Recover the amino acids of this structure.
């Protein structure tokens, strides 16, 4: 075992934010008219949490459209609709992570893209 | 027992929306900078659901301010911060309900304000 | 407009509980091994809320099985998996409601089944 | 920048689980009678997610008791009531993390406790 370092903490914080975002907002009623403002509020809310340097959320409009209930004309936000890119800055370490739908696994996959010293 | 009528359905739908709104959005990170856009997206999201005629959400800024974590400068949306006024139109019946913090009971109380025929 | 009565309140409370249940628990990781205990805790949690006389939750095991991710062997609770029967007792009025997946509408439908005086 | 390694991934996965758990279950109605089963289902649900080696959830009964609404005799699960210890096993690396209420910061703090090779 080695001591816990900045890099560990940056990556840990990045994981926390993706898990939080996912389980807070999945289930929200959504339509093509509200998708823009929902993207923005998810970004704004997550950006409030400690050590977030930037966060960009994009919701798959094609999936939303396919899932719209024909009678009621809305659906619910699902994890697979989410495309999130997030940077944590912990002291001088930046961890860049993402959440993206993986078609092959049919799973909303969270992964680390890059870790760097500023 | 009597048959289920329009009035019953209007009031039932109104209850559904308040319960949904509460448990979907409570826990969202919030600060004085995001309170406006969070109010709007809650309104927009709930307005998508069936039979909603209007919905108005107001979050208590004083409570948010008091709850802000001094180190991290944000808090989480709590039920007691919510003031919601909602109208359901079911066929020709309007049910107006609200969610408001009741200080005496220390409870976010949901109640029916008015039921009327259009 | 007429005054708000017991019947209105019973039906309103019933709606609140279904909306709450839905948006609190949808998104929970689930497998065939945890479906029983998830049903029980949803029942127990909702039964704590005011005026609940009884609540019975059944999760569609076939749907869960179909949705299991082949690599990770779990999925998430979806609204359409839920079959809920709930009774509110408000003073001497009982409102019985349910949440059930409606295949035709492809929608998790909430409806009033019966309203009666005790 | 260095390549992303097992250790990074173990710590990242650990963060995801804590964030998910928190935002999925906060808001659940709870009383002293349901606290045991709620602890178990949170453990069971999170244990389903990829790479979880073990997870132990303890809810602060004293806080629950203090927060019980005197009229309705229940409250809602809050982040500060949660004490969670979780181990991720990613290939041969174990990351042990926790969520615990930090009184000084008045914040439910998530932290890495240990990282080791099996």
């Amino acid at each position: 075992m080695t001591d816990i370092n900045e890099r560990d903490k940056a990556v840990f914080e990045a994981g926390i934010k993706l898990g939080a975002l996912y389980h807070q907002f999945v289930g929200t009623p959504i339509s093509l008219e509200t998708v823009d403002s929902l993207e923005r509020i998810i970004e704004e809310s997550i950006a409030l949490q400690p050590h977030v340097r930037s966060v960009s959320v994009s919701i798959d409009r094609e999936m939303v459209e396919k899932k719209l209930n024909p009678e009621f004309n809305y659906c619910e936000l699902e994890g697979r609709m989410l495309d999130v890119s997030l940077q944590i800055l912990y002291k001088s370490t930046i961890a860049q992570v993402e959440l993206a739908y993986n078609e092959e696994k049919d799973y909303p996959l969270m992964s680390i893209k890059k870790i760097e010293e500023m």
Remarks:
- Chain B is about 35% helix and 35% strand.
- The helical segments of chain B are 6-25, 35-47, 61-67.
- The first strand of chain B starts at residue 29 and ends at 30.
